[in-house]
Amino acid sequence: MGHVLSGKELAKTVRADVKRRVSESTYRPPGLTVVMVGEDPASEVYISYKQKACRKVGIESEVKRFSADVDQSEVLAEIDRLNTDDDIDGILVQLPLPNHLSESTVAARVSPGKDVDGLHPVNVGRLWRGESGLFPCTPTGIVELLRHYGVAMDGALAVIVGRSNIVGKPLAALLLRENATVVITHSHTSDLPGLTSSADVLVAAAGSPGMIGPDHVKPGSTVIDVGISRTEEGLKGDVDFDSVIDVSGGVTPVPGGVGPLTIAFLLRNTVQAWMEHTTGR
Ligand code: NAD
Questions:
Q1: What share of the chain is helix, strand, coil (3-state, %, to 5)?
Q2: Backbone dihedral angles phi then psi of residue 22, each to the nearest 5 degrees
Q3: Do the Cβ atoms of 157 and 183 come closer than 8 Å?
Q4: Which residues on neighbouring strands pair with residue 42, listed in sequence order?
Q5: 150 CA to middle of ligand 1, Å?
Q6: Does the beta carbon of 11 lie inside 6 Å of ligand 1?
Q7: Cα–Cα dist 212/238, whole Å
Q8: Whose CA is nearest to atom 4 of ligand 1?
Q9: How many CB atoms neighbour CB 157 within 10 A?
Q10: Which residue's CA is the nearest one to ligand 1's atom 17?
Q11: What radius of gyration do the chain's Cα atoms show?
Q12: Most buried by CB count within 10 Å: which residue of 76, 86, 122, 158?
């Protein structure tokens, strides 16, 4: 029977560290603006979590709202304004955007130094080149969770299910930096179980509830469940937790696994950007 790898304890430590850095500083508080287009109910829930978390650590956050049919030029103009606002350290564009807006154009407009989601091409390039920058919060949280539980990454075979720009691809880059051997699988991969069942570290980020069962998992391995799907039975991850925990060495639960880390590392990215703006460090 494997261990439950909770993200709550590490998230608490990261939040406490952020709060301490903000409270000990003599500079103005960090500022985060969330840009929200339309009224997606799941996005509204995430934004309220983010705002509450910011309040608790002393980060000033605001939401800039646009109607679902807003012209892209209006959103870009607001990002231009925020890029030059000296009180704003982080700009986060809540995804998904309505179809008529280009996520890549909008992401590329945010100043790289304020890009707390790590989606600007400059930060993506820095990530793959092994340089420092602002990197996506969920993959950063996953690597820190593995470190927290002492899971070996150096030399490990890591298999990622999902190749999105926000989870799968940046996680591959971060695990490469930890000297893992990385395989990225996706919806066109043939023989998924054949690949996942060799993994020392398996990360499921497909958004397909319960798709990873015991046959996908190598005995004793570590399984990280990123998926969050709203089903009739409540929130479900991509991993069938009850059966996989019997095979694996450790599994993250949903909720309470990766989710709390995503918000904690958003706070940390915001403070990183703030420190660079205010002290040049
Ligand atoms: P996405 O839809 O952008 O990407 C999903 C990826 O999974 C795609 O690359 C697709 O090819 C792959 N995929 C889908 N079905 C597959 C299958 N059957 N076999 C193999 N690959 C398959 O999603 P995303 O934004 O990366 O999010 C993935 C999941 O993680 C969602 O459930 C999302 O809600 C969740 N998520 C959670 C957090 C968190 O904080 N815990 C953060 C971000 C995303």
A1: 45, 15, 40
A2: -70, -45
A3: yes
A4: none
A5: 25
A6: no
A7: 6
A8: 164
A9: 16
A10: 187
A11: 19
A12: 158
Chain segment 35-81, per-residue pLDDT in tens:
999 999 999 999 999 999 999 999 999 999 999 999 999 999 999 99
pTM of the predicted protein model? 0.97
Instruction: Quote the CA–CA distance of 259 and 205 in Å, as a whole number.
Output: 12
CB 145 within 8 A of CB 8: no
The DSSP line for 12-54 is HHHHHHHHHHHHH--SPPPEEEEEEES--HHHHHHHHHHHHHH
Segment 119-123 long-range contacts (CB within 8 Å, at least 24 positions apart): 119/165, 119/166
State whether residue 223 is helix, strand or coil: strand
Q: Which positions of the chain have pLDDT values less than 70?
A: 281
Cβ atoms < 10 Å from Cβ of 9: 12
Q: Report CA(70)–ligand 1 centroid distance (Å).
A: 27
Q: What is the pLDDT of the chain when averaged over all its residues?
A: 97
CA of 227 to the centre of ligand 1 (A): 6
- Reference 38, options 105, 78, 77, 96; nearest CA is 96
CA distance 264 to 15: 6
> Which of 164, 165, 196 for a ligand 1 pocket mutation test, highest count of atoms within 8 Å of Cβ?
164
Residues facing residue 202 across a β-bridge: 159, 223
